[in-house]
Amino acid sequence: MNVITESIEQGVPLVVLAPHLDDAALSCGALITYAASRTSVTVVTFFTEAGQAPYTLSARRYLHQVGARNAKTLYQQRRDEDRAALEPLGITCVHVGLTEALFRRRPTAGARSRLARLLPELGHIYPVYRIYITSGRIAADDVDTLREVCDVIKQTAGSGPSLVLAPLGVGGHVDHILVRTAAESSTTNVAYYSDFPYNQRDFVHDAFLDRNSLVETIWSGPAAIKSELIRTYGSQMQSLFGGEGIPLVPEVFFTTETLGATPVNWQK
Description:
Oligomer: single chain
Shape: globular
Strand order of the largest sheet: 3-2-1-4-5-7-6
CATH topology: Rossmann fold
Number of strands: 7
């Protein structure tokens, strides 16, 4: 038994911090399905809104990839998918309403804003996905977003005893790094989940693990349960898996203390 399992079995409330509207299911789907039958589970998703047009080339490519013409309509669909996936399990969904990095704008005005209407990249904090959004670095213009994330964690996870799960930031997506950074600086009891599917191609940064004395623990569960949960996020299936099957692998977590890395016995 590991410390995450032990907390769940003791009925400690579980709070999952999710950057986007599928991250909890992707990285923790088996665990939260199991936990929801034993304790209260809340999934707090931070970046649940898109910005207004004009969009950057990276944003337009994403909308084309998922077959959406309008970002506002897409994100309403994504919020609906999130509730459809989690609420039937008895999980509470909290949608914070922050704008996703792909659409986040600089706090600019005047002539530069007029020019940005012609070249949208000039008006965005993270103008190119592969250069800026997955760089693993929080931009100076994004400090207010970090402050908002910190405030939400303090309000939702700091009100009483709970186990908080935050993203490890595998893959370097800035929204994941923002949530991880805020969780690390909080006073809550935090464990970290390895970000799926990014962890299938990227490595964990040992510096963060060493700084927080984190130890790996494995959670294994029925593949069919997690697969069904992920498929509820239909708008994202093509962009995530390219029409191929979902690679169902054991969920990986990192805690500051462990009683062993024995997979959970789901037949209890």
